[in-house]
Amino acid sequence: MHVTVVGSGYVGTTLAASLADLGHTVTAIDIDEDVVATLNAGEAPIHEPGLEDLIAEHAGDRLTATTDYGAIPDSDLTFLAVQTPSNSDGSLDLTALAAATEMTGEAIAAGGDDGASGDGGAIGDGAGADIAAADDAAPHLVVVKSTVTPPALAELRAALASGAGTATGADGAVPRAELATNPEFLREGTAVSDFRDPDKLVFGTESSWALDRLEELYETLLKETDVPVVRTDPETAMMIKYANNAFLSAKISLVNDLGNACKEFGLDAYEVMDAIGLDDRISEQFLRSGVGWGGSCFPKDVDALRAASREAGYDPALLNAAVEVNDGQPQRLLELLDRHADVAGERVAVLGLAFKPGTDDVRNSRAIPVIDGLHERGADVVGYDPVATETMRERFPDLEYAPDAATALEGAAAAVVVTDWDEFAALDEEFDAMADPVVIDGRRIVERREGLTYEGLTW
Ligand SMILES: NC(=O)c1ccc[n+]([C@@H]2O[C@H](COP(=O)([O-])OP(=O)(O)OC[C@H]3O[C@@H](n4cnc5c(N)ncnc54)[C@H](O)[C@@H]3O)[C@@H](O)[C@H]2O)c1
Ligand SMILES: O=c1ccn([C@@H]2O[C@H](COP(=O)(O)OP(=O)(O)O[C@H]3O[C@H](CO)[C@@H](O)[C@H](O)[C@H]3O)[C@@H](O)[C@H]2O)c(=O)[nH]1
After folding, report:
1. Would you tell me how many other CB atoms lie within 10 Å of the CB of residue 120?
2. This protein's superkingdom (predicted)?
3. In ligand 1, which atom is closest to the CA atom of 148?
4. Nearest-CA neighbor of 179 among 143, 134, 215?
5. How far apart, in whole angstroms, are the C-alpha atoms of residue 358 and residue 422?
6. Does residue 329 line the site of ligand 1, with CB under 6 A?
7. CB neighbours of 40 closer than 8 A, spacing ≥ 6?
């Protein structure tokens, strides 16, 4: 199939390159000219293991990038993978996605003589005009990949309809575009392999025609794997996405709540969690306590779900508490540090800047409140991350960034560990170069040993 993907960030680029790898012809559209140039040069605009190889293999062949929405009407379907950030009150900021949706609709309407859909036949040659539709006309399928609260889908439908307009079919006006949802569950750091081997696919459609299109698109994946497919309506599909993220975030917050209690009791939360993870009903995954959850998804999605629920008349108590616990973890880490060192005027190393290992993404990284707290204490902060230095530099341009962990630790009065990069587990004599070997570990990655003043956040 010929697929257009609007938005070439973490999700859109992974989707575009992976669909090309499945054999589809993919046009990636982004408003950022640098992103488009990078893709067309066969390079990845973001750090994601395996992505560079896929792009290098397919760029210029099955994968092309452009800033021009004109490719949309000639494609069989269009994915929307534009960002959906939070407003300052936590609610969903739909501005970018609604604009992209309307522009997609306009491109469909302006699709020209040979039709609004790759195989659907002619529908229109301009928005709002008197248009004679071919008998076999099908609308263009626009699939929302971005994460959008169920109530917000109404706004996207309106934006799509406003852009695309209707054509005159045999039985009267017919929409030129139909909306579906196909939420994404990939994790950063393992995005490419998550796409190829997902836990589930969720198709939210309003017609059997749209469902058939999605089944056709994912045919190879469905044959290669025994991935379960959830077929439902667009709103339920998006609620599944939010419920998934809400559940996982709340699980980590519960683990942190229990972990904080363990710490006060002088117990090791990891020993406790390893044991409860043996219960199939709990599962061993997402039981790692520490400095909390960050990233571009959990914080904003939980906030958007809370805001949308409140708007609908329900205040979700447990989700509110999950956020409260999460917000408290960086503070607890700093309080542990205070017990061992007065860092005013002292060099303090922050090991790990990315919100998790395997990515250069620092959105809502726990490193941000930790660095803020260190600055409040008057510390001289030096940060180190294997790949996220440049992205964090945008947030903290004046911070000192070390080229490696050893340099960051040299002469430091304390070190705090924020990201569980594997390489931190191998650190040993590097700590001996510290002015005072105080290590506060927010991820249980550094080995506790003789000669270190070591504190784990929950152990
Ligand atoms: N990052 C993840 O791990 C992840 C996983 C699952 C779902 N999601 C959801 O997917 C969506 C995208 O997230 P992301 O992290 O890839 O975002 P991102 O910020 O990395 O990328 C968004 C891209 O869209 C482009 N863009 C903005 N407006 C545009 C327009 N009008 N036309 C074309 N391109 C436009 C931007 O230039 C940017 O390159 C969000 O809704 C997010 O919640 C993200
Ligand atoms: O036991 C754990 C597991 C994770 N985390 C933290 O939780 C955050 C999120 O981690 P993870 O879920 O692995 O990464 P994301 O890439 O944010 O992926 C989540 O968010 C995506 C965007 O919605 C979804 O697609 C994924 O399914 C969902 O796992 C990170 O800060 C981790 O450090 C913990 O603190 N303890």
Report:
1. 21
2. Archaea
3. 41
4. 143
5. 10
6. no
7. 59, 60, 64, 65
Which domains are assigned to the chain? 2-232 (3.40.50.720), 268-459 (3.40.50.720)
Q: Which strands, in side-by-side order, build the sheet including 414-417?
A: 400-401, 380-384, 347-351, 414-417, 438-441, 453-456
pTM of the model: 0.94
**Cβ distance 303 to 364 under 8 Å?**
no
pLDDT of residue 170: 84
The mean pLDDT value for 412-420 works out to: 98
Ligand 2 centre to CA of 394 (Å) is 22
d(CA 89, CA 307): 8
How does pLDDT run across 174-210, given as a tens digit for each residue? 999 999 999 999 999 999 999 999 999 999 999 999 9
Does residue 121 register a pLDDT over 60?
Answer: no
Cα-atom radius of gyration of the chain, to the nearest Å? 24
Nearest to 6, CA basis, from 119, 94, 102:
102
Strand duo 380-384 + 347-351: pairing: parallel
DSSP secondary structure code for residue 336 in this structure = H
Ligand 1 centre distance from Cα of residue 61 (Å): 24
